[in-house]
């Protein structure tokens, strides 16, 4: 059966099981998880929201860093949001019932803070190599230099302003530094 690519999708739901690491037959390492997105609908007759079943998604993560973070941080029952490339593949069960395999190749996974507290970050030595940190450091140093230079210019401008105010106070009838 053909797999239909649907494009980018964002799904929020609860993890059905702990994330797990697998190795594909081709030797590729992935972290996988299964997500249940609960559907709700408004019942106009009863005038209340009610559960309308769940959609299940198989999520695969091939980014090593994201996979490591998901595997070490998330557990069954956690509420998360997954963003990634979505595809659907129809199937038929042994009993002849049709179904859909919903799959997402995750670009990002975010834990929800609505239900649980989440600890962000790790001590510097546990983070591992951080792409771009080295590149950001000179930019920060330059920014500090620019900030110091701007502060110096600000001080000089304030001093000039104070001198101009003193001079204007000594010469009544002359316009002040503001031109007024």
From TrEMBL:
Gene3D superfamilies: Nucleic acid-binding proteins
Superkingdom of the organism of origin: Bacteria
Positions of region (Disordered): 1-20, 124-180
Keywords associated with the record: DNA-binding
InterPro entries on file: NA-bd_OB-fold, Primosome_PriB/ssb
Pfam families membership: SSB (PF00436)
Protein's name in the database: Single-stranded DNA-binding protein
Taxonomic source organism: Nesterenkonia halobia
């Amino acid at each position: 059966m053909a797999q239909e690519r649907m494009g980018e999708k964002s799904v929020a739901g609860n993890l059905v099981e702990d994330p797990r690491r697998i190795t594909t037959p081709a030797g590729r390492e992935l972290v996988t998880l299964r997500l249940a997105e609960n559907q709700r609908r408004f019942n106009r007759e009863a005038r209340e929201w009610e559960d309308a079943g769940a959609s299940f998604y198989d999520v695969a993560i091939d980014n090593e860093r994201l996979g490591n973070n998901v595997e070490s941080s998330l557990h069954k029952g956690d509420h998360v949001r997954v963003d990634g490339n979505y595809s659907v593949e129809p199937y038929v069960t042994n009993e002849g019932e049709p179904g859909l395999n919903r799959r997402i190749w995750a670009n990002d996974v975010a834990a929800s803070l609505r239900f649980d507290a989440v600890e962000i970050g790790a001590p510097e030595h546990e983070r591992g190599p951080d792409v771009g940190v080295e590149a950001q450091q000179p930019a920060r140093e330059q920014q500090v230099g620019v900030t110091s230079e701007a502060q110096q210019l600000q001080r000089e401008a304030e001093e000039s302003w104070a001198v101009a105010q003193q001079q204007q106070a000594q010469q009544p009838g002359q316009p002040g530094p503001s031109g007024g």
